[in-house]
Write a structure and sequence with these properties.
Elements (H helix, E strand, L loop, with lengths): L2 H28 L3 H6 L6 H28 L1 H32 L6 H8 L6 H33 L3 H49 L3 H10 L8 E2 L12 E2 L2 E2 L5 E2 L2 H8 L9 H9 L6 H29 L7 H4 L2 H9 L2 H39 L5 H22 L7 H25 L5 H20 L13 H18 L5 H12 L3
Antiparallel strand pairs: 1-4, 2-3
Length: 520
């Protein structure tokens, strides 16, 4: 192994050691009871709440997936997605956070999302809890797989080792860390990882722009590619049958730019709708120690999100200028951040920047695994199967569930050609359509009832699969991001079914008013 590779590895080992130490520090408290393990005893401060929410939300997708999209087909797809996410982040913090913090306490001091939905409608038969827990298991397993793919690509690209063994190594590390510390360890390390991620992005974009000869040179190169530097056009890489972009005279070949119309823009902006149903973000709203601190958290989160998304998109643009023929497939394009880091930074510094990718991956995958495990152990096992189960039994089932979910995610991640952006987009749509409309109506519409909640949740989750696998294949107006139609159809089902069935009870109306007025 070369000296530079050893230095990169050393820096990453130092980082990983710090993460494990954080897990060990919180192990004792995390294992006190299930509330501490799953929600940290509602003790998060505003900075940790904001940074951990955004770090766990963005994942390795921010440092690999989004730059990869910009590198491959230009500004439009990546930018409109980023704009949608920024808007969604702001509205979620502004509208949802305070009401959910109140309502989760009013609704039986709920500590998981399925428990909140179930308690919100005062269920006796835990139908909503069961359905929501199952959807969480399905979509978070897919999400965890995307993180394992990121780990595999990162280590394989850096060290030239087989993807499979590197993916397995990353998965094992994430699993051990999650088993150790629970929600508090995850949130504390996510705060650190959020800092690492934005610093890594900042360093790379500055160094790369200097290497390219300045901002003007980067923009001129981008404009020379048809549709590459446009908000209403899309670059079209010319590829062979294997999906590899053609090269002529030492330069990548692009076809004519394609139009980027209103429907496509709406499709990408729809990414913002996903936030209303994203458990790893919503749990931070529930876990903050005081609702008054959410205002500061919102400001911190927005600054982080806007800066990070803008830099991530630009990294793809500058990467296409500096290394136009290095990444000739959509899958390979997601390694442009790694290529820039290892090319222009001293090995030891490059290692710490690479830790930014690892940070993003760990901060998300531990959230995904923990929330999925809580859905199974706390909501299905203790909530339905064995209602008298004690905390010790719940914790045991949690750890078993973590292992099972991780194994399934590993199987999904076996495909080295997986495109992180596409894997994440499907899981994001799943959560956004399944829980987003239900969350908004549960918090702000008194007339919603249990029947409407069940109908909306099932319709949203199922429609994501139906639209992605069948309807979108029709092309034309149907070839839009599945989150948008699924979200709208779910909302319509909630309204129609609720209005056609009995109104909620006085007890539910009283809970609603208490949450609205902050009486808890």
């Amino acid at each position: 192994m070369e000296s530079s590779t050893i230095q990169i590895l050393l820096a990453m080992i130092i980082y990983m050691t710090i993460v494990v130490v954080i897990g060990l520090i919180f192990t004792k408290r995390a294992n006190t009871n299930s509330e501490e393990y799953f929600l940290g005893g509602r003790s998060l401060g505003p900075w940790v709440t904001a940074m951990s929410a955004e770090a766990s939300d963005m994942s390795g997708w921010l440092l690999m997936g989004l730059p990869g999209v910009a590198y491959w087909c230009g500004l439009a797809d990546a930018s409109w997605t980023a704009i949608g996410l920024a808007i969604g982040t702001y509205v979620n913090w502004l509208v949802v956070s305070t009401r959910l913090r109140r309502y989760s306490v009013v609704a039986g001091n709920a500590i998981t999302l399925p428990e909140f939905f179930s308690n919100r409608f005062r269920e006796e038969k835990k139908v909503i809890m069961t359905i929501s827990a199952l959807f969480i298991l399905i979509f978070f397993t897919v999400y965890a797989a995307s993180c394992f793919v990121t780990c595999g690509k990162l280590f394989s690209t850096l060290f030239g080792l087989p993807y499979l063994s590197m993916m397995l190594l990353g998965a094992v590390f994430v699993l051990i860390y999650t088993l150790l510390g629970g929600f508090l360890a995850e949130s504390a390390s996510d705060f650190m990882q959020g800092v690492v991620m934005i610093v890594a992005l900042g360093i790379i974009v500055c160094v790369s722009t200097v290497q390219a000869g300045g901002l003007q040179a980067v923009m001129e190169n981008a404009k020379s590619i048809p549709g590459f530097f446009e908000f209403f056009g899309l670059a079209t890489p010319v590829v062979d049958e294997a999906g590899v972009q053609l090269i002529e005279n030492g330069l990548p070949v692009f076809g004519e730019a394609t139009d980027y119309g209103i429907l496509k823009i709406a499709s990408m902006l729809a990414w913002g709708l996903g936030y209303f149903g994203m458990p790893q973000v919503l749990l931070r709203f529930m876990a903050i120690r005081k609702e008054e601190e959410l205002k500061l958290s919102r400001r911190i989160a927005m600054i982080w999100v806007v800066i990070s998304l803008a830099i991530a998109v630009f990294i793809g643009i500058v990467g296409r200028f500096l290394f136009p023929t290095v990444h000739m497939t959509a899958t390979s394009a997601e390694n442009i951040f790694i290529t820039l880091s290892t090319s222009f930074l001293p090995p030891l510094f490059a290692g710490f920047v690479m830790a930014g990718i690892l940070a993003a991956t760990i901060s998300s995958s531990d959230s995904y695994l923990l929330i999925a495990a809580s859905a199974c152990a706390k909501n299905l096992y203790q909530g339905i199967v064995k209602k008298d189960a004690d905390d010790k039994s719940v914790m045991k089932v949690t750890r078993i569930t973590l292992l099972v979910i991780a194994l399934i995610a590993i199987v999904i991640a076996l495909d080295e050609q997986s495109v992180i952006f596409k894997v994440v987009s499907f899981a994001w749509a799943g959560f956004g359509a399944t829980f987003g409309p239900l969350m908004l109506f549960s918090l702000f519409w008194k007339r919603i009832n249990r029947q409407g909640a069940v109908a909306g949740m099932i319709t949203g989750g199922v429609m994501v699969f139906v639209w992605k696998l069948a309807i979108s294949k029709l092309g034309g107006v149907f070839a839009i991001y599945e989150l948008l139609p699924a979200f709208l159809i779910s909302s319509a089902c909630i309204i129609v079914v609720s209005l056609l069935t009995a109104p909620p009870s006085e007890a539910l109306n009283r809970d609603f008013e208490n949450a609205k007025n902050g009486k808890y």
